[in-house]
Amino acid sequence: MLPQGFASRSATIDDADAIYRLMAAGEIRWHGRAEVAADAVAADLQRPELDRERDTLLVEAANGDLAGWAWLHLAKRAQIDVHPSYWGLGIGTALLDWAEGRSREEGSEWLAQAVDDADKAGTDLLRSRGYEVLATNWLLERPITTPGPRNVPAGVTLSRYDEARAHEVYELIEGAFSEFQQRRKSYDEWSRLTVERSTFRPDASTLAYADDELIGAVIALDLPETDEGYVQQLAVRADQRGNGVARAMLDDTCAEFHRLGRRDCILWTHSGTGALGMYERLGMRVRRSTTVYRRTH
């Protein structure tokens, strides 16, 4: 139940900017900077399988402020955010009640949610309801220095993103990610979340080839109003791992970000990938983390 004076409704595409500003306010409060991108919110709201009428909920204050929001992905994963101005009023609890109810209504056996590790209230709420740790996500950063010589493995060539090979890039990335993800995205969903975003930088995205076979890919975004470049996805074909392909692609993308005047290169990785150690060997360090909690119904 919402606190008195607040109302709820479903989200529309036109709400993307307000949702972005809400999420950014929380990140600024916890970390002193916002890393969420406005077009990421818009992309999530346009996922092909999302029913915005049933699977999103906005909470508005009497003055019209967006106080909180939640969305449910395929009845199994929720995202819930409350504006810092409205923390402590029970809005997060009400949104979690809604998400759990929708998940059960759709017949899901469990619900998961990622919570920023700086969000002590959100963490305490989930733990109080019996949620258990499922995984950890780390945001990694690497300062971009003046590029040195490129160490590209023998027999491998690097190039910029090629739109004509978009389906090959999708197959390579989703094939690599399917080793730890439970669900494989459709091409339509993948492209909306990556190469169709306004922040996508094909000139900073790197493809790796052995002869003419695609063996690796980096999808890069240029985060607006920051001095950082974002590696959204990095994947290497299984039979080519351990040969320096990932390092070569990351160095190449970071060099392009340097040309664009960016100070840091950042990316997220997940404990299920087992890739944290590799990224640390590539010069990246943990900036912050989130924890994924899950509970069965």
From TrEMBL:
The keyword Transferase applies. Keywords: Acyltransferase, Transferase. Pfam families: Acetyltransf_1. Residues 6-145, 156-297 form the N-acetyltransferase domain. It comes from the Bacteria. The keyword Transferase applies. GO terms for molecular function: acyltransferase activity, transferring groups other than amino-acyl groups. PANTHER family: AMINOALKYLPHOSPHONATE N-ACETYLTRANSFERASE-RELATED-RELATED. This is Acetyltransferase (GNAT) family protein. It comes from Kribbella steppae. The lineage of its organism: Bacteria, Bacillati, Actinomycetota, Actinomycetes, Propionibacteriales.
